[in-house]
Structures are given as C-alpha cells and as structure tokens.
Amino acid sequence: MSQSHLLSLRLAPNLVPHVSEMPLVSVLTPVYNGARYLRDAIDSVLDQTYANIEYIVIDNCSDDDTPAILAEYVGRDSHMKVVRNDTLLDVIENHNVAFRTMSAASVYCKVLHADDCLEPGCVEKMVALGERHPSTTIIGSYSYWESGRFPETIPSNRFFFAGREVCRAALLGEYFAFLSPSSLMIRSSVIRDRDPFYQGGELHADLDAYYSVLENTDYGFVPELLTSIRTHDDSVTSSEANPLRKLQAAQLRMLVRYGPVYLSSAEYDESLTNQLQHYYRFLARAILEGRGPEFWDLHKATLATTGHPLNRIRLIGALLRRFMQFPRSCMQILMTSHGGKKIARKS
Fold it and tell me: N or C end of the chain, less CB within 10 A?
C-alpha cells in the first residue's frame, strides 16, 4: 500500500457515510489532578475529523481544577461524558475502570492520557487502517516525544505487521512499537475479552497486554505523526516510574515471560544473557547513586520472580568493572549523589 493510497482512505466529503454507519470509537482519558494540560487533551479529541466518537473522562478523585474543567466541557459538548470514581484508585485500576465504561457498540478504543494530544486526523486514519486490515487488533503511529519522532526505526513503508513480528522486534531491541497507550488504538473486542485488560497491578501492565494480545493477531501502523506524548515532572512516569527505574524491571519481566513465546531458543538465551549483564551494570550505577530501600526491594523482587535472584558477588564484580572502566565518571556520580563537596575534601 502506498502512502497516497493510505491517505485516500480518509473519508471523502462526498462519500461520508451517516455517523451511525461509522464504527464507534471510544476515546478514554483516565485522569488524576491533570488540570495543567487537560484542556489541550480535551480540545484535541473534540477537534477530531472523525464523527462517531464517544469521549469518556474518568476522574480519579482529583482535588485540583480538573472537576471544574470537566464540568465546563460537559456542559457544552454532548459527545463527552465524565465518570468520577468514589474512591482513589491506583493508575492501573483506573485504566481498567475506564475500559469498562466503553459502550457495548464500541468497535475501537483510543486511550488518551490527560497530558497528551491527538492530531485532528488521528482517529480517522487509524480507523481507516483498521477497517482495511480486520486482523489488526492494535494500531500505532509515529508520535512526537521529547522533541523527536518515535518509534525511530520501525519500517516506514509498511502498514501491516504480523503481531509476532512486532513483539519479536521489541524483545530484540530492533524497534519498539508501544511507546504509550496514547499512541495506540485497540479493537474494543480484545479489551472486553481480557478483563481486566491491564493485569498484575504493575505500572507497565500495558506492555504485558500488548504482548499477550499480539500473539495470535496483527499490528497496523500509520506512518504519520498522529499523537504528541508530553513528558514533565508531574507525570506518572516521571514521579513514580523513573525514580525507581521501573521500566528496566518491566523489560526483564517481559523478556522472561514472552521471550520463549516469540524468540528462538538461541535468541532467547542470548537476549537474556545480554539483559542480565545490562541489569547488573544498571544496579552497579544504582549503588554509586545511593538508591534507597524501595528501589532495591523492587529490583530484588524482579530478579527473584524472573528466576534470577540477586547475585551479590556478580553485583560487586559489575561495580568493580565500572570503576576500572570509568573511574572519573564513577567519582562524579559519587560526588553528585552523596554530597560532592564533602567527598572532595576527604580525598
């Protein structure tokens, strides 16, 4: 399929079907104290060129200006609905609540986090690709992310991938098609068939869902910048995942859980060896940075549950090798993390 052919799948003005004949798309925004960027997210949904959208915002007991902003929009747009939780939920359960709010008639689901935005043609183009390829259950696109385009290395001349191919590429580090829930569209039927859709209570439970769903289905890709993913200090990723480096833990869990499904035995063994080497180098740096008990509890538990309990001798070896290879860098990390001036005076 050529780029021009894909773009021609947009609905021509003289061929637009009645709204009731278009597949219903559920756009879901789970939010907690998201007032800072919420208007941008809402406006990007209401400005979509696709007509048959139900927009549902799930307010997780926000105590900032989020409820007031939502009330303002609901009062003037009939496409928008707000659900407010009775009690504060963790981020994963709030997403699962959001998935359960979809109408029974929903054909596609588009999560949009309250700090992200959609380009006006995002929903229309993703639906067009999904309708062209009925076996696709997850559809992605390029996204703006930290002033760049992501995913950078996914083949840009293809619109259809076997799900197993995409998962294998992700596990081998060739390209990663799952930047953020905001960058994807999912068939509502697979969400209903897997309830809760995000399982296990882990912050990166979305990755587990994608790897699971794509084992026997396919992935579609629109090679255009259709979403903007915002990074900032107040985001869940910045405030919860980054300080504990939860993504590193999730990557090891996904490799151990799905490597045997998508990789050959030789590929899996090599990938696991490389991943564990990287993990111990990462932990060696964490020693220099003076990471606290919560950090070490998380990563010791990750190693144990993946069948590779923390080996202290191996960790010490990784730390010594780091000092031997990068002595100046190690000293800079120590001084930055533990009070550089005091260390400098003692040396």
Answer: C
Q: Strands 218-229, 136-145: parallel, antiparallel or unpaired by DSSP? A: parallel
Cβ atoms < 10 Å from Cβ of 347: 8
pLDDT tens, 4-57?
A: 344 444 444 433 455 657 999 999 999 999 999 999 999 999 999 999 999 999
* Structure tokens given for 33: 């104290």
Please, what's the b/e burial string for 257-276 (b: 16 or more CB within 10 A of its CB; e: otherwise)? ebbeebbeeeebeebbeebb
**pTM, to two decimals:** 0.85
Q: How many angstroms separate the first and last alpha carbons of the chain?
A: 65
Domain 3-233 has CATH 3.90.550.10: yes
Q: Which two tokens stand for residue 250?
A: 């999730």
Give Cα 204 to chain centroid, integer Å.
7
76-130 pLDDT tens trace: 888 899 999 999 999 999 999 999 999 999 999 999 999 999 999 999 999 999 9
One-letter amino acid identity for 293?
Answer: P
Name the β-bridge partners of 160: 220
User: What are the start and end residues of each CATH 3.90.550.10 domain in the chain?
Assistant: 3-233
DSSP string, 295-325: HHHHHHHHHHHTT----HHHHHHHHHHHHHH
Whether the bond between 196 and the residue before it is cis, its omega within 30 degrees of 0, is yes
- d(CA 266, CA 331) in angstroms, rounded, equals 38
> Contact, 4 vs 102, CB < 8 A?
no
Neighbours of 20 (CB within 10 A): 9
Number of H helices, E strands in the chain: 16, 10
Strand, coil or helix: what is 249? helix
CB within 8 A of 73, min separation 6: which ones? 42, 46, 80
Report the DSSP beta bridge partners of residue 138: 186, 219
CB 254 within 8 Å of CB 207: yes
The alpha carbons of the chain give a radius of gyration, in whole angstroms, of 22
